[in-house]
Amino acid sequence: LARIPPAMFWRCKSLASATIPDSIQAIGKFAFGNCERLCSVVLPDSIHVIDEGAFINCKNLDAITIPSQVTKLRGGVLFGCCNLRTLVLHNAVTEIESEALAECEKLEHVFIPASVVKINDNAFRDCDAVVIHSPCRSYAETYAKKHNIKFSAE
Questions:
Q1: Angular region, 53: left φ>0, alpha ψ -120 to 50, beta rest
Q2: Do residues 119 and 97 lie in contact, with contact meaning Cβ atoms separated by under 8 Å?
């Protein structure tokens, strides 16, 4: 099994934590969607793709680090993770798609590398407390200013 299939753990009420093995290279659409008790996920660097909505509405997830080989934060991937406070992206990421982090009301810190050259206009919809941390003169800084999002130079 090199991929967690779409909706594999959809609405799994008892799943509180997940450590994904190194053999996994991709997480399918909605794989962990609506796992409301899920609070901890460890993702290995072997993962290249995390599909749309993979962690949608995981209401207890409070922090996540996107693996170093993932190039896009896909649409709705963390939508509605209302207790998510911190997100760390690595240098492979070049794009943050539509509503990737929408309705993450408690999101405080997003660390965006200089490699990101595209962020969808509504990627951070209803994330009023967020601070984008990124290098000076990065695309993320331009995006933050355009959308009145707090910015911290890293």
A1: left
A2: no
